[in-house]
Amino acid sequence: MVVSLLKLTYNELVEQLNDDDRIVVWTCNDCVRYCGLGGRDPLDALADRLEADGYNVIHRELCGISCNRGLVRNRQTHPATKPIYQDATVIIPLVCREGLETLAFVFKKQRIIDTVETLGLGVYSEETGMRLNVPLEETGLEPSIDGYDLAELAEQRGLHTGPFVAGQKAKAK
Questions:
Q1: Cα–Cα distances in Å, from 58 out to 23, 95, 96?
Q2: What is the pTM of this model?
Q3: Helix 97-106 / helix 69-77 crossing angle, nearest 10 deg
Q4: Chain CA centroid to CA 138, Å
Q5: Cα–Cα distance for residue pair 121/118, rounded to 1 Å
Q6: Tens digits of per-residue pLDDT, 64-98?
Q7: Is 156 left (phi over 0), alpha (psi -120 to 50) or beta?
Q8: pLDDT of 149 over the 90 cut
Q9: What's the burial of 45, exposed, middle or buried (CB within 10 Å: 0-12/13-18/19+)?
Q10: Based on the number of CB atoms within 10 Å of its own CB, is 64 exposed (0-12), middle (13-18) or buried (19 or more)?
């Protein structure tokens, strides 16, 4: 599975939004879910928080895997969702780097806010949670059979574990 962590706080995210934005919050339901920053609950938590802070969330999208261009394009062209994406001005993705690139490729008219940093490949277990085992070269980390703890990696790299809004305060609008 792909291992990603948040690179923005909630405050840093909302600094990139405008009062008139029409927002889609988008997430995968696979790798990022096991990293604790994607899936249904983090999607709803972020969308609910944005709405409570006065932002216009027009849609919540849970996509099986956002790195699959066909699945993403289907959301853009399907009669049920096409009007939503024609109206949207911003997509906030809770996805890995590949998912982000896929969204940017398909949704050229919407502003896509880059929220995560992808660190490499990992393994999830009930005992240890998600662990990074095969880091991307740019991390400077060596591969590890035991894996790297995501909370420790987040602290070392100035990143954040999910869900997006955990312990983060909103700035007054």
A1: 6, 19, 22
A2: 0.92
A3: 40
A4: 20
A5: 9
A6: 999 999 999 999 999 999 999 999 999 999 999 99
A7: alpha
A8: yes
A9: middle
A10: exposed
